[in-house]
């Protein structure tokens, strides 16, 4: 569990596009892997072995090092029944925990509501990146979102609070005739004001931060550096959310996917080194997920949308290792004759993080009771 002298903090990293789990944690001794992936398959002498059947992609070396140190739990075969291959619907399902109905509330937003029922701190939940992820959107739950801490906030070119308020009222009046004055407009308006309030507080995180850790110059590294800056400022943020895009590798997977994994792994490693240098890592856990895996066979350039993906839970208090089961490589068990099957429901993984790390009953948040793994040391 987290250091109870410090409140537990969760960092969610979304890999947008559908990460190819088979080329991230590779079944490097399986003949069916090489038969199915003549173009994009990784050679046996290139990978970083975990044991005699699975290995890390060599471009995930920084993450593999953290795994060897016992800080990374690899969740194999994560998914849900009848996996949806649409990016938008699949991500919506992961964001709302509603595989059948269209969900109205994001699971992270529900968590924030549990953590701060009265919405006292607009920085309890912070999104780093463009827009507000559906996972955080719940009417009445304040969330602050920014793309870059050094230029953060909405309408940042207007410094005077009154001028910004007037500008937002004009914005509201422009859209009121089309959208109406109901819950949608009220929610958008309130969210805009929450962002402004949060932006004013975030100014504190711009100054006073120093670090000996040199982050790489790429999008995910910059985002995680901003997460570190806010966390180290002590503004009471309990949940961070950020995204790393580009994983929809239908084509050019050979050059593109390794670069993505290298950027991601390096950024995560730098982030935890930074927190440890400031004695601020023991209270942080990270969940890395993606909306679906890719198909087993390559398409001669990349891979198409599939299922049976993977996730990672990372942190000082994590019991590193492999969790759940790697999807079967027996063709008789392939879903639709071409996909990896899922071996554990993603809602159980959310539940494990919520209950075992954040100390929250997950039932209402994830919509039921699901099998959990136990990735945390006592």
Summarize the structure.
The protein has 378 residues and is α/β, with parallel strands linked by helices.
Overview of this structure, please?
It is a single chain. This protein is α/β, with parallel strands linked by helices and 378 residues long. It has one domain: Alkaline Phosphatase, subunit A (3-Layer(aba) Sandwich). It contains 10 helices and 12 strands. Strands 1, 5, 6, 7, 8, 9, 10, 11 and 12 form a 9-stranded mixed β-sheet that branches. A 3-stranded antiparallel β-sheet has the order 2-4-3, with no helix packed on it. A hairpin with a 5-residue loop joins strand 3 and strand 4. Helix 2 packs across helix 8, helix 6 packs across helix 7 and helix 7 packs parallel to helix 8. The protein starts with 8 loop residues before the first strand and ends in a 12-residue tail after the last helix.
Topology:
Blueprint: E1 9-15, E2 25-26, H1 31-36, E3 48-49, E4 55-56, H2 61-68, E5 72-79, H3 87-96, H4 107-115, E6 125-128, E7 144-146, H5 161-179, H6 183-206, H7 219-233, E8 239-244, H8 253-277, E9 284-290, E10 309-315, E11 321-323, E12 344-345, H9 346-357, H10 363-366
Parallel strand pairs: 1-8, 1-9, 5-11, 5-12, 6-7, 6-8
Antiparallel strand pairs: 2-4, 3-4, 5-10, 9-10
Helix pairs in contact: 2-8, 5-6, 6-7, 7-8
The unreliable regions are 153-159, 174-185
Per the principal axes of the C-alpha atoms, what is the gross shape?
globular
Q: What is the C-level CATH assignment?
A: Alpha Beta
Question: What is the CATH architecture term?
Answer: 3-Layer(aba) Sandwich
- Share of residues in helices: 25-40%
Q: State the major sheet.
A: 9 strands, mixed
User: Beta-strand level of the residues, as a percent range?
Assistant: 5-15%
